[in-house]
Design a protein that fits this description.
Blueprint lengths: L1 H46 L10 H6 L7 H32 L1 H15 L7 H8 L3 H26 L2 H9 L4 H38 L5 H10 L3 H29 L8
């Protein structure tokens, strides 16, 4: 009996060790790929004798952080627009999908209108947003929200519709309220679909915030890119792009971490 227990413990430790090694190997591969991109970038500029105003070296790009461009403030402004628009999209998308699951007539009548409104190019609405909301953080949050909320709405609606109706009927027989049905049955069952839409929406939220800054803003990384474009400070433009990417990656990893915490591995829609 004791030998069997020891053997079981050894196998368990071996399994954990194998998972840790696989995870470490995965992160090393990711880091190596990113480093390879930087090296290729450097070699392309140096060996190709590319002018600095066309493409700077990685070192020149990072050196632009020392210039007086108020990097921290502009990065925080852009991050606020991305996170604000994204969180608003999650709240509205999930909430609207829940209402649609409760009232099918609303889904049949309003969903086509929502899809049609989202076909409007958001860049074309930029001048109207300036008229309606003026400049600042608010309009850019609205633009980011308007671009990224549809995937969340569609995937959440799909997830809620995939929940076993017999299970919902069983819960209702014990007089569970709609909210209890949602929190205990529908939400856990639809989480894989919700996170699938949320991961897609991260990319759209970043694009929406930058589009807003290009159109109607006096601060932020997108606005900064327009300013340094005039002086052909390409290194600062590259640095702004890298910081925008960093903000998007941070948001994506937050969503991924939440998915790993709340959704079992076999149920994830990877």
């Amino acid at each position: 009996m004791g030998l069997r227990t020891e053997h079981s413990n050894d196998r368990s430790r071996g399994s954990v060790r194998g998972k840790v090694n696989a995870t470490v190997g995965h992160w090393i591969l990711i880091a190596a790929l990113h480093l390879a991109v930087v090296i290729v970038w450097y070699l392309f500029v140096v060996w190709g004798d590319v002018p600095s105003y066309v493409m700077p070296t990685p070192l020149a790009t990072f050196e632009s952080l020392g210039e007086e461009y108020n990097w921290l403030h502009n990065t925080l402004v852009t991050a606020g627009e991305i996170f604000g628009g994204y969180l608003l999209a999650v709240a509205v998308g999930v909430g609207l999908a829940l209402v649609f699951s409760w009232f099918r007539l609303l889904e049949v009548t309003i969903m086509p209108l929502v899809v049609s409104l989202n076909m409007i190019p958001k860049v074309a609405l930029g001048p109207l947003f300036i008229v309606w909301f003026s400049y600042g953080l608010g309009p850019n949050i609205v633009i980011a929200f308007s671009i990224c909320f549809l995937p969340i709405l569609l995937t959440t609606a799909r997830g809620l519709s995939e929940v076993d109706p017999d299970l919902i009927d069983l819960v209702r027989t014990v007089r569970a309220s709609r909210w209890q049905v949602f929190t205990k049955i529908q939400l856990p069952g639809s989480l894989p679909y919700i996170f699938s839409g949320m991961k897609v929406a991260v990319v759209l939220a970043v694009a929406g915030a930058i589009v807003g800054e290009f159109i109607a803003s006096e601060e932020g990384l997108g606005y900064l890119m327009l300013q340094v474009q005039v002086t052909l400070d390409t290194a600062a433009m590259f640095m702004a792009v890298l910081l925008i990417t960093l903000v998007g990656v941070v948001l994506y990893w937050i969503v991924l971490a939440l998915e790993r915490i709340t959704v079992v591995r076999d149920a994830r829609l990877d």
